Amino acid sequence: MAVKLTSTREAARYNGVKAMVYGVAGSGKTSLAKTFDVPTVVISCESGLLSLADVDLPVIEIKTMADMSEAYRLLTETQDGQQFKAIVIDSISEIAEVLLAEEKSINKDARAAYGNLTERMMEMLRALRDLPGRHVLFISKLEKAKDEMTGAMMYGPSMPGQRLGQALPYLVDEVFALRVEKDQEGQTQRWLQTAPDFQWQAKDRSGRLAQFEQPHMASVINKITQAAAAPAPAAAIA
Predict the structure, then answer these.
(1) Longest Cα–Cα distance in the chain
(2) How far apart are CA 6 and CA 128, in angstroms?
(3) Model pTM?
């Protein structure tokens, strides 16, 4: 098959936004699935989706890695699956735990089990990330770790296995921390932190987001894709 010559602008326009969000339990990570403005499906490994009870989003329930493979086939090979332009995986932390349990049941060597976990999870996450024309949101639990140099608490995505946890942020262009804080009047506020600080891991490769954004994926995606949607500048006349 011949290679296709394209441009960075065209690739950004049609590949979709690939993002990861993490935060404390109950912060509203799953509720982000309601904030896309395109047909959305949730791939869920969680025990309940009460935060989505007020909407009627399609859900693919995952109990095993075989289920995950079948979900991928549905999304890529069937007309029903291809209608979804946003895919929310809730959560990759739980899916990794399911896979780790499967690996441990067939491999008594813990190091080998964790090695297989990393390889298989990365393969699966890359396959989902690389779906063309789809927005993909990976939801992760929060990991707390104490910095040995400063003693400060550090926060980032949580996954079983050190190698897998370290590799996660490099998979996507956008990593958001869903923050829940009190404002000066004591009112609870929720924000997506898009840039890192001395405690929270985050990144925005688009360079178009403010450090803190409203937790609304359609608005965030619109900001990210504005540059790609703009007409290319006309070539200069010599």
Answers:
(1) 69
(2) 22
(3) 0.89
Return per-residue pLDDT of the chain as tens, 238 residues.
566 665 555 555 668 999 999 999 999 999 999 999 999 999 998 766 778 888 999 999 999 889 999 999 999 999 999 999 999 999 999 999 999 999 999 888 988 999 999 999 999 999 999 999 999 999 999 999 998 888 889 999 999 988 888 888 899 999 999 999 988 888 999 999 999 999 999 999 999 999 999 999 999 999 999 865 555 555 544 4
Domains and CATH numbers, the chain: 8-229 (3.40.50)
